[in-house]
Write a structure and sequence with these properties.
heterodimer; A: 280 residues; mainly alpha; MetI-like fold; globular; B: 305 residues; 2 domains; two-stranded antiparallel sheet; 14 helices
Chain lengths: 280, 305
């Protein structure tokens, strides 16, 4: 009897791990194929699709970076995402602080006003956004994207940060005021450092979708030299359809930054990206 | 003067957010509700048209055929995604919640695709499903199921399902980790008490775990619904702006895009803004009503506990 139970448990555990390994394989195999094939020549990709390369060659990476202007796309993505996220952190944390720690007439209405954008996808307003950007003379500039991302980032970022600011004890403020801090210094030097974990969450929550975004660049950008990686990639796929080693190298390059960051900071990533759906 | 500013510093702190948010989010969303009520000549607004654009979309051929075709595809997209995430997704979360080093590893792996851009996912899988090179058909052949091999994305009968499964491949890590967080927040005493009462395996899951992760399941379902009704990138990248072959993968997102911004795949054109905005309004209506209803139902249920 004892032995039976133990054997059953062992089988169950082996079964579970077999299932999960199979699942992990299904997740990882396409990515492994992508990376491995990027080091082969196109001829080799077709002759031996699933073998390791005979010679590991960085040739396609060099070509993708220079000839297919991936270097330019990469720089654009980095510039747009970094500037947008920095602006979101500064603007949203100030607003969240103002809304969370001051009492004034209309503060509740204002909170609700910011909260209202939480469930509505900005995509549905993309036509007026396009017209607005065009009238402002910002069409086909990075500013159009950055302003869009910052606006879109406000509801959730303010919501999350004001929750954290509200929980800080009142005594900190009083002490700082007695020490002669101005109101802004209290925010900047005393309170902001205390919500650093929340700032990290907000940064990741916004950075990943902005880095990966394809929709707004598609609508708001035209010039090739301004395109971000996801949009640049579609162009590149049209041009190099026969050159598969370039395609695999391009996809690998596009995914590498976030993949590396994720593997280094997986806890932060998971917390940041699921923050919208988990109650604290 | 200085004291006046000090006392009202919150105005200055809130102002930048208020301006950007109002200008680039609230204003476009609000005016998009109005744009559908006008005639448009390119970017130039014409006469007030009443509900003419809506009549065209809902009752005139071929617009109505395209519109209802797209809606059906969105519903199918949501239904299949929902089915996958609330069975396989919940199952994975339950397994991961047992803890241990290997489980942490599986968990980390399951979330990897979620960090990829949909453009990369789309291109990668269109190579994987390539009829001659693709690994999927090769794997089927190796398993003795060579007869099943087909051009998955080129066949109107399989294209949409293939895309939904690819989307699930990328997306599933998100529901799994949200469910996992919900399971882990259940106090362990509840399970222990039930175990003392003789509950085992399935009973524990059915009567303790499931009711307590229900709120998380609902939240994720609402988010999935919104997300799936906004679906665009995968289909645009893999099947083009008209959701080929023969509109078999056309969804509201692609229909809206090519109505408002033209058929061009390069972007930057302008199409029929009036009709496009009417579609956007109808999408707004669907997403808004359903998520509001679900949200109210959810908050009412929670107070009952």
């Amino acid at each position: 009897m004892r032995f039976h139970q133990r054997a059953f448990r062992l089988f169950k555990r082996i079964g579970i791990h077999a299932l999960l390994s199979l699942y992990s394989l299904a997740v990882l195999l396409p990515l492994v194929i992508m990376v491995v094939n990027s080091f082969k020549t196109t001829r080799e990709i077709f002759l031996a699709p699933f073998s390791l390369p005979a010679v590991w060659s960085f040739q396609s990476y060099v070509q993708v970076w220079q000839r297919a202007s991936f270097g330019v796309y990469f720089a654009n993505s980095l510039w747009v995402s970094t500037l947008s996220v920095t602006a979101i952190l500064v603007i949203a944390s100030m607003a969240a602080y103002g809304l969370a720690r001051y009492r004034f007439r209309g503060v509740d209405a204002l909170r609700l006003y910011f909260l209202a954008g939480l469930m509505v996808p900005l995509r549905l307003g993309v036509v007026p956004l396009f017209v607005l950007v065009q009238r402002l003379g910002l069409l086909d500039t990075h500013w159009a994207l950055i302003l869009t991302y910052v606006a879109n980032g406000m509801p959730f970022s303010i919501f999350l940060l004001s929750g954290f600011f509200r929980r800080l004890p009142q005594e900190l403020e009083h002490a700082a005021r007695i020490d002669g801090c101005t109101e802004f210094q209290i925010y900047r030097r005393v309170m902001l450092p205390l919500v650093r974990p929340a700032l990290a969450t907000v940064a990741i929550y916004n950075f990943v979708p902005i880095w990966n975004d394809f929709f707004f660049p598609l609508i708001l950008l035209r010039s090739d030299h301004l395109k971000t990686i996801p949009l640049g990639m579609t162009l590149f796929f049209g041009q190099h359809q026969i050159d598969w080693s370039l395609l695999f190298a391009g996809m690998t390059l596009a995914s590498l930054p976030l993949l590396a960051l994720y593997l280094m900071l997986s806890g932060h990533f998971i917390r940041g990206l699921t923050a919208g759906a988990i109650k604290r | 003067m200085h004291r006046w500013v000090e006392k009202r510093v919150y105005i200055i702190m809130i102002l930048p957010a208020l301006v950007v948010y109002t200008g680039f989010m609230v204003y476009p969303l609000f005016t998009s509700l109005l744009y559908g009520l006008y005639e448009w000549e390119g970017l130039q607004r014409g006469a007030f048209a009443g509900l003419a654009n809506f009549r065209t979309i809902l009752w005139e051929r071929p617009f109505n055929v395209r519109f209802f075709n797209a809606i059906q595809h969105n519903i199918y997209f949501f239904a299949l995604t929902f089915a996958i995430q609330s069975t396989a997704g919940l199952g994975l979360a339950v397994l991961f919640s047992q803890g241990g080093r290997l489980m942490t590893l599986y968990r980390t792996v399951s979330f990897i695709p979620y960090t990829l851009s949909l453009v990369v996912v789309g291109f990668l899988w269109s190579l994987m499903l390539n009829p001659t090179w693709g690994i999927v058909n090769k794997a089927l052949a190796a398993a003795g199921l060579g007869a099943w091999a087909r051009p998955w994305l080129g066949d109107p009968r399989t294209a949409l399902t293939a895309i939904i499964l690819i989307n699930a491949w990328r997306w599933i890590g998100f529901p799994v980790l949200v469910f996992l967080a919900a399971i882990q927040s259940i106090p362990s005493e509840l399970h222990e008490a039930a175990r003392v009462d003789g509950a085992r395996g399935w009973q524990l899951f059915r009567h303790i775990t499931l009711p307590l992760v229900m709120p998380a399941v609902l939240t994720v379902t609402i988010l999935t619904f919104i997300y799936d009704f906004m679906a665009f990138e995968l289909i645009f990248v893999m099947q083009g702006s008209s959701g080929g072959p023969a509109y078999s993968t056309d969804v509201l997102g692609t229909l809206f895009y090519r109505t408002a911004f033209g058929e061009s795949v390069a972007g930057g054109d302008i199409g029929n803004i009036g009709l496009g905005s009417a579609i956007a309004f109808l999408m707004f209506l669907i997403v808004g009503t359903v998520s509001l209803m679900a949200y109210r139902w959810m908050t009412r249920r929670e107070t009952e506990y």
